[in-house]
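Forum: Protein Structure Q&A
Topic: Joint prediction for protein chains with partners

I've read a bunch of threads here and the consensus seems to be that you should model interacting components together rather than docking separate models afterwards. I'd like to see that in practice. Below is the full input, 703 residues plus whatever partners are listed. Could one of the regulars post the assembled result?
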Amino acid sequence: MSDRVVRRTVTVRNAQGIHARPADLLAKTASQFDATIWIERQGERIDAKSILSLLTLAAVEGTRLEICAEGTDAEEAVAKVAELIERGFDEADADSPSPTDSSPPQHRPGSIR
Amino acid sequence: MLSLQGIAVSPGVAIGEAFVVDHEGFRIPRRFVPQDAVEYEIERLQRALDAAAAELEQNRQRIDAQLGSQYGAIFSAHLRMLQDPQLVEKLHELIRTRHYSPEYAVSTTLREYAEAFEQLPGHVLPERAHDIYDIERRILRQLLGRRREELSHLDSPAVILAHDLTPGETAQLDPEKTLAFVTEVGGVGGHTAILAKAKEIPAVVGTGRFLHEVAGGDLVIVDGDHGHVIIDPDAATLERYERERKQHQALFQQFEQLRELPAETADGVRIELAANIEFPHEVRAARRRAAAGVGLYRTEFLYLASDEEPTEEDHYRAYAQVVEAMEGRPVVIRTLDLGADKLGRAPADGEEEANPFLGLRSIRLSLKNIDGFRVQLRAILRASALGPVQVMFPMIATLGELRRAKMVLADAMEDLDEQGIHYDRRIPVGMMVEVPSSAVLIERFLEEVDFVSIGTNDLVQYMLAVDRANREVAELYQATDPSVLVMIDRVVRAAEAAGKPVSVCGQMSSEPGQALLLLGLGIRRLSMPPVNIPEIKAVTRRVRCDECRSLAERALQMDLAREVNALLREELRRILPDLVNHHPTSPDTP
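Posted by a regular:
Agreed with the consensus. Here's the joint model:
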């Protein structure tokens, strides 16, 4: 039982930053731990288990974030979350935008009304 | 205080409490729950969240299977948003400590998130705001059930604020209880706008998104003359509008006094001012404004009121009521002028039309559904035994269509003859000129009809290729574009040469400046919503025909609608200074 805060600084690597799919993955990963996990950026502190908060971070490629956790499995939590970010969320990069960030395809031909 | 600018579609100023109807018709009142109901409400919220999550999970699986997991991932993110611990905690807190109803808590909280997203840099994340609204709707749908708030059951007078109102919903609005309405989408000349005018309810449409910033019960000012909407006004603004509302009433009372005076120009030329009506009961408004007749009786309401095809008796009753109430004044009944989409009876294969305005609508629909068309024509013919009825076909684009429509009419006459049912054998048969092709060949059409009526709303839309309900291009919709004026001029001259009556029944008739222009082009019959008749009569009585003619001649030589509008404004200011003050944006309003 440790109440020590574990911290690690990481850099967002994937070209599109923390958009919907990465935020989903990140929140999912964080939620697997009992520890309280949060992310700090320039004094701003958000809950890593909250996808909505992660999205409002609007962290783009190159953003430096501090991953922090407190609780029994804090060490492992920080390691897993940091690794996920450093791996660039396993996104096959940049050239084609991930379909996650557009609405489901709709067939909507030009319409005058 | 929040100020919005929309498109003014129905005149008048109204001040009252907001009644908010959301995107899918959900009313989100600022409602509170009593202390002892908090736990129950939190449970209700939890059930709604669980149900919404189950729905999303189903969607995810379906999309996964259909399109692959990268698309299903969208729903996975939605699902996580829906179950976001921060969100859920916040909702609980609002219900527990501030006693918000779950609906109100969901709506406030998610809209805060959506707004936060919209503020984010770049373009990808702000787009996520749509997701938040989508989640909000999902939860609300669970909380409120699928029923759309019944607008017809307003218990006290209110200003209706909605994303959109269907024509059916507008039709239900009770003018006694509806002080005004405002919709986020829509444009001038849309069906909703026409209905608002018919019901004499001040209305502004196309304001863009604002509903997330209002709550039911907020004080709202709607200025249907200028398209302004003010939410939660400060004292000075409120006072200014109270004053304006009084002036508005005074001006219109002044116009009403012209009721007994003839509609004629200052040099004594008689102008026929007729009424456009939609519902039988509007005939009272038409009579009150001393309309010379009904220049356009729209019959769509018969089809919109129920899912069933109207019977001959449904038609007949509606027509007979109007013909009898007009006591010998002419009534022009227009056959069905709706798209299949509006009728909720899409073509058999269920495919939505990509371009409904170029699709199966109006006379095309009637000619595809000959049985229903014959039913309507029989009823019109029967009504012609009661008074001077004229029948008019909308959206005629080719001579072939006109001839087919006339053939169905002839068939219906034959049937009535066989059955010994009375009707006016010499019923005048006319057509709307609203598709450019019919204006181009107008001489040939005139040989086959007894009268024509220019439907400027659609004519402008089809000539300039502009959807007037589309905010992105609404400003390109200019009835005063010289190409439109040249077309009208051409139709008027051809009709004069053929000795057949020509009238205008579109929006142009009821805009004071544009009405002057129409008089100058030689139009002597204007048909408009009853509410506009007194004002147009006032304008007419102050001008001479030669003034209008030279105005029209100058306008025809111009290159741009903007120039024509400036000319009309200047002319109106000269002739009717008091009116221009009242119409500062007209006739420039798109």
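The interface with chain A takes residues 63, 67, 70-71, 73-74, 76-77, 80-81, 84-87, 113, 116-117, 120-122, 124-125, 127-128, 130-132, 354-358, 465, 467, 469-470 of chain B (CB under 8 Å).
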